[in-house]
Design brief:
Elements lengths: L7 H9 L9 H11 L6 E5 L5 H8 L3 E6 L2 H10 L6 E4 L15 E7 L8 H11 E12 L17 H8 L4 E7 L2 E7 L1
Parallel strand pairs: 1-2, 1-4, 2-3, 4-5
Antiparallel strand pairs: 5-7, 6-7
Helix pairs in contact: 1-4
């Protein structure tokens, strides 16, 4: 159950006011590399890219990466923190915009980090992911699991519950998961 709207109207002021979120750790980056492999110039899409840290890791693995976000200030932050060549950044609402406007028709990797839990209609979101994921591609999801934080933590409820995890993992031929503290990383393949 989403507790905060997955809308630009909610997220844009947070990004514009300088709010920043959890960086990709070295352990998480290693898990990503182990599960998606080398890019060799294949396309990758990072949904809800924020400042672009996951997109940059995909780019370093050799993927031709596009990071999308519906918050203009997030895209500005991603562009402003880029030092050299790297991912392309696009303002887009993945849940409602025309997917044919993406730079590639299919992606070897589609990723969403700290995004899935905010989707109100998770099944519809997953249908859209499947539309752009290449037949042998990997859907990489990093999400918090509800109840993983210490008792008394006011954010203990954040994350997906077992029903939402089942929605996420149903219908994939390969499901691999690895835990990182309160987060779980999923590598899903059609």
């Amino acid at each position: 159950m989403a507790t905060t709207p997955a809308t630009a109207d909610y997220w844009e002021p947070l990004w514009a006011d300088g709010r920043r979120y959890r960086e990709v750790t070295s352990t998480e980056a290693t898990l990503l590399a182990d599960h998606v492999g080398p890019g060799r110039g294949r396309p990758a899409l990072d949904i809800g890219t924020g400042e672009g840290s996951l997109a940059r890791h995909l780019d370093q693995l050799g993927y031709r990466t596009t990071g999308i976000d519906f918050a203009p200030s997030a895209i500005t932050a991603a562009r402003n923190t880029q030092q050299d060549e790297g991912p392309a950044w696009h303002l887009m609402d993945f849940t409602s915009d025309d997917l044919s406007t993406l730079p590639d028709p299919a992606y070897a990797v589609v990723a969403c980090r700290l995004v899935y839990r905010w989707m109100d209609d998770k099944a519809a979101f997953l249908d859209r992911v499947r539309q752009v994921l290449a037949p042998c591609g990997t859907f990489w999801v990093v999400t918090e699991l509800a109840g993983r934080r210490e008792a008394g933590d006011p954010y203990r409820h954040l994350g997906i519950d077992p029903v939402e995890a089942e929605i996420l993992t149903a219908g994939w031929s390969v499901v691999r998961a690895a835990d990182l503290d309160v987060l779980r990383c999923y590598a899903l393949r059609p």
